[in-house]
Description:
Bound molecules: S-adenosyl-L-homocysteine
Radius of gyration: 21 Å
Number of strands: 14
Strand order of the largest sheet: 3-4-5-6-9-10-11-12-13-14
Helix content: 25-40%
Distance between the termini: 23 Å
Amino acid sequence: MNRSATHSESGDRPIHLYGLRPDELRAWLEEKGEPGYRAAQLFDWMYKKRVTGVEAMTNLPKSLRALLRERTRLTTMEELTRQVSKKDGTTKFLFRLFDGSTVETVLMRHSYGNSVCVSTQVGCHMGCAFCASTLGGLVRNLTAGEMMEQVLACQRLLDAEGGRVSSVVLMGSGEPLENYEATVRFMDLVSAEEGLRIGQRHITVSTSGLVPAIRRLAKERRQITLAVSLHAPNDEVRGRLMPINRAYPIAKLLEACREYWEETGRRVTFEYALIGGVNDRLDQARELAGRLRGLPCHVNLIPVNYVPERRFERTPREQVQAFRKELERRGISCTVRREMGADIAAACGQLRAGHRMAEA
Ligand code: SAH
């Protein structure tokens, strides 16, 4: 397999077709002397028929197929493992990328549709105390095309059952807003008419709280849902869990969230992983409610996933409900996230961490 797939053509590096917007593909084809309508044909093969190689694109002239084989790449990832939950059908993929790196992708089946949890970086360097993805540090950013391939792999699986991916959450490994350009490009591609047509309202981007990037995204006024990993009611607790809080404390973060709401009209989701004895007391629920008062938002409570290297205790079920009620009593809209795929490599980043350990 070629070792340098990218969406930009530099030197003799092949272009990754899944990273290109329709206008870019058209321009490239025209530059090669091909009629512009070939772009529509190619997109149809890529996103509607979802073939995995140019050989299958039988309505393209042989000469064009030869050019595509020589100058471009369609699929660049190889499936290493696939685990299916016996409980709820959640499917976890581990992919090997062109350079040998590995990333995880999760397909979740809900009553309201199928959602894909996409990774945006190989590893992560945010250093959150409870997270497995950050254990080996950051290896590299993923390209938009690599994010797209994760969704397509799930869609191909669903094709066999006549299903479709209806939503995308950027909550896999990595900090999407640190890989801003590729992430935004991916979100535009996945919602494109010519692509999978997953509407922006069905895309959620999750951030550990990069304030300048939240502001930048707000200004672009997309209809994307912003999820912010808050996990604490004050800087003292958050600072212990998330190093990023030193750069962007809660007050600044909430200001940026308000700006996101003002610019886009979309209420912000706050993720809050409940950790026994750390952030799950009722007085902390009250403090949290006080801070969020007046900000159109929704809180997603997540009983922390156990990561062997981290040893955080899960909040007991009754305490989770008590915490939820305390928030609701104070007018904060709130849900407890249903656990998916608990029987297959539970926590975020665990599949890849386990694979790296097995390889070491
Ligand atoms: N870097 C981004 C997106 C990836 S993490 C972010 O921080 O939001 C996706 C979500 O999973 C985040 O809310 C993160 O805090 C949460 N998470 C990570 N490890 C977890 C664990 N062990 N248990 C529960 N949630 C976890």
